[in-house]
Amino acid sequence: MDEADNVFNDSQTKITMTMKTPLSAIAEAFEELSEFLRCHMKDEELRLDTFCDACSLVSVLFSCLGLAFKFAEMEYVAKVHDLVEASKRFATLENVLDLDVANGTVKKPGSHSRNLRRVRQGLDLIRALFEEFLSSEDYSLRDAASTAYAQVCAPYHTWAIRTAVSAGMYTLPTREQLLLKLNETDQTAEKKMRRYIEASRPVIEYIDKLYISRNITLDW
Fold this sequence. Notes:
The chain is mostly helical. Helices cover 73% and strands 0% of the residues. Helix 4 (70-86) crosses helix 6. It is globular.
């Protein structure tokens, strides 16, 4: 009986280890985007639907952060949904930007180009959060999130939103609670977070270059 129990426990452990967690799916998706940009950037544009598929996976991270990032979650999810709908009419990110440039609506609230800019900020916020989270084992999630928000989003948010986010930081889960929600350990989370950090950088840079190459500043 003990031997049977051991076999069962071993198999359960293997199943758990091979299950694709949210972090695994996100890291893999952005590694695929990064690899595509590395290999095809000169002769092929990034498809909007492929980009949206990867971005949709990130939504779960915002939901795990609770009330403090509820506004960011709602904004991010809405913007990604808009781009998903846009992908039914536009093949690439460049197509979206070119239309708004032609119509003079790049920065217009609700435009696809503005929503793409906000989604890009969401991806960068998660990147910065992971970097801060991994910078020290003693660094609380609240400290990591506060620093990441101040770096990436605060410069573009109104005083009211910044105040609400600041108050909400006290409702963030603990480091341990976040790992539990993500079904990760410190060790597995670190590997996957680092993979996302590395893979997301070229994607974020690619989006920035789309704006810059069209003489659109990034200070908004």
